[in-house]
Amino acid sequence: MAEKLTFTMIKPTAFKNNNTGAILKMINEAGFTIKAMKLTRLTPALAGEFYAIHKGKPFYDALVQFMSSGPIVAALLEKENAVEDYRTLIGATNPDNAAEGTIRKLYATSFQQNAVHGSDSDENANLEADFFFSKTERI
Ligand code: ADP
Ligand code: MG
Question: Is 54 a catalytic residue?
């Protein structure tokens, strides 16, 4: 069942710009079911832990600062082939390279502030879901 799940965050700028509703609509219309969701705010320590895989990269410190700069929406999503299909829906990391009609193409404001996070593997989807959601917070 693991391959049916992916994890997303609506990043601070997209939340602040009131793009949450439009992004969730795209997610639902693409066939994903929401299995858990919360509005929350990361501390710098939690953002650093979430993105620990990128520690040491040139963009890491600024990314941690950005991701803890305001509220985010975290969600666990279900669909067949969830990880790959969600990466297709969101588009390339750099919005300049994102395909037309993707979430990042529509709502990113910069490379760093690229609207949403999406898991890159089934293993990370599960780790990321566990990072945010307890058993009782999932359906
Ligand atoms: P993705 O979010 O597509 O999986 P990565 O895991 O490589 O991309 O990077 C995590 C996040 O770090 C990106 O979504 C983006 O916000 C930021 N980021 C990555 N590379 C850069 C970069 N070269 N310049 C600015 N921000 C970056
Ligand atoms: Mg990534």
Answer: no
Minimal-distance CA residue to ligand 1 atom 5: 93
CA of 87, closest atom in ligand 1:
3
3-state SS of 20-34 is HHHHHHHHHHCCCEE
The residue whose CB lies within 8 Å of the most ligand 1 atoms, and thus the one to mutate among 112, 121, 128, is 112
Query: What end-to-end distance do the CA atoms of the chain give, in Å?
Result: 14
What pLDDT sits at residue 114? 98
Residues in the chain: 139
Query: Domain total for the chain?
Result: 1
Domain enclosing residue 29, as ranges: 5-137
Q: Which atom of ligand 1 is nearest to the CA of 60?
A: 12
| CATH number (domain holding residue 80) | 3.30.70.141
Q: Give the pLDDT of residue 2.
A: 53
Q: Summarize the confidence of residues 82-89 as an average pLDDT.
A: 98
Atom 16, ligand 1: residue with shortest CA distance: 112
Supply the mean pLDDT for the chain. 97
Q: At what angle do helices 122-132 and 82-90 cross, to 10 degrees?
A: 80
Note if the pTM is more than 0.85.
yes
